[in-house]
Amino acid sequence: MTAALECEGLVKRYGSLLAVDGLKFSVTEGEAYGLLGPNGSGKSTTIEMVVGVLIPDSGTVRVHGHEMARHPLRAKRLVGYVPQEVALYPDLTGRENLRYFGRLFGLRGQRLRRRVAEVLDVVGLADRADERLGTYSGGMQRRVNIAAGLVHEPKVLVLDEPTVGVDPQSRNAILESVERLVAGGTTVLYTSHYMEEVERVCDRVGIIDRGRIIAEGRPEELMATLSPGGRAEVEVDGDVQAAGVAVAALPGVAVTVADHRPRLLLVTWTEGADRLPDVLQALNGVAAVVRTAAVRPSLEEVFLHLTGTSLRD
Length: 313
Description:
By secondary structure, this protein is of the alpha/beta class. Helix content is about 35%, strand content about 30%. It has helices at about 45-50, 70-75, 95-105, 110-120, 140-150, 170-185, 195-200, 220-225, 240-250, 275-285, 300-305, and strands at about 5-15, 15-30, 30-35, 60-65, 65, 80, 155-160, 185-190, 205-210, 210-215, 230-240, 255, 265-270, 285-295.
């Protein structure tokens, strides 16, 4: 498949600090790629090099084959950047903001009016377009921020923490907009600290730490690496301790009682696609099974497992 974005051997130093260390990843055309990393991982520096506001010490960024360093105008024209902070003018209306950013990319006349109308529709703000931006809610401002990154019809859209500080309804509206863009063929590079968002919108994920990609794959593939077997919740009615002993006697199976729910057994196994039938057989005659539910590892668990739990800046 055609690569829309390629980062190869990126290195960036700030004095003695090596912020990005030979980083390499690529995003195929029409794909949503999540770039995740803790504070101090080099993620923000990487984003700045991808969009061309920061020059790498070495390495290459290509957008649809155009090298950012050698052909910056061609490459930047293909990229839409939506930063963490809302970068708009509060005294202008939503429509006026979008016209301004469209003109920066050379749009004029009917084409500009058409694109402004289209992106307002994408973010669901056509009915509020002629109100001053300063009267918009935080979520609405972030949606216009996305529209500003889209107005020049970029091939690659970089969304850096697009839902920070917004209410659940606005977050859902933003995610729905991203899903529609990806379905329509737009390539998206997405960063967020909300792992459920990444699971929802991203086809693949790269986890960056200390300036390098340390894991990469589809969300379900990364989650499978944390628990190659499986996990389940089993709620019982009867002697919970005896039930735990019976399940723990199974080879390759571990069990604990949930702290917050004393009738709930948390069962894990390291081999086999599904050991739940064995668990239920072991409980036969020991305790009545009230409910069972398969539990899969979360992307957040994978992230913490790979990067550690201690806070770093």
